[in-house]
Amino acid sequence: MVFSDWISEHYEEKGPARWLAFSLECVAAAVLMALMLLTCADVIGRYFLNNAVDGTVEITELALAVVVFAEMPVITWRGGHVVVDLLDRYMNHRLVKALGLLSALLVSGAFYAVAGRMMFTAERSLRREVVTEYLQMPVGYIVQYISVMSYICAIAMVSYGIYRIFNDER
């Protein structure tokens, strides 16, 4: 099987969105694998060698931020967020679509607001040279990453809302 055929089979997105989703999931998988190896090394070092890996907690916190925010745009575009649709079958189809668009716009606005605030916080952290406690790693870069991924989520949510309006699901 050719690699591009495998991608086409496992990713329903079209065009560049497919490769973006694949790339972001590769980043998340690689960081998760590194996190698993770090945890194994830390446990082995702690219990068998009486010497734990320095800064494991800080690296774990940063790695979890990378994993979560690498997957958020993919989940957002696919509409994988939790949705409660108890009243949808009792409502008019057009009203359900309108509420879906309103929801997409509200969620997108929330992502945009979070991204703007995070970018402000990142710039302030970089300006003040805020670093982690043990490893002295700059915090501002990871906060900038969170901000950029939140901007991407905002764009993905708007495009998903527009996509849902023009794609009739019933």
Radius of gyration: 20 Å
Tell me the helix content. over 70%
Topology order in helix (H) and strand (E) letters? HHHHH
Q: Note the total helix count.
A: 5
> How much of the polypeptide forms β-strand, as a percent range?
under 5%
Computed structural class: mainly alpha
Mean pLDDT: 85
Q: Give the end-to-end Cα distance, rounded to a whole number of Å.
A: 35 Å
Description:
The protein is globular, with a radius of gyration of 20 Å. It is built from five helices and no strands. It has helices spanning 3-10, 16-48, 56-78, 93-127, 140-166. The model has no long low-confidence stretch (mean pLDDT 85). By secondary structure, it is mainly alpha-helical. Helix content is 74%, strand content 0%.
What's the SSE blueprint?
Blueprint: H1 3-10, H2 16-48, H3 56-78, H4 93-127, H5 140-166
Helix pairs in contact: 2-3, 3-5, 4-5
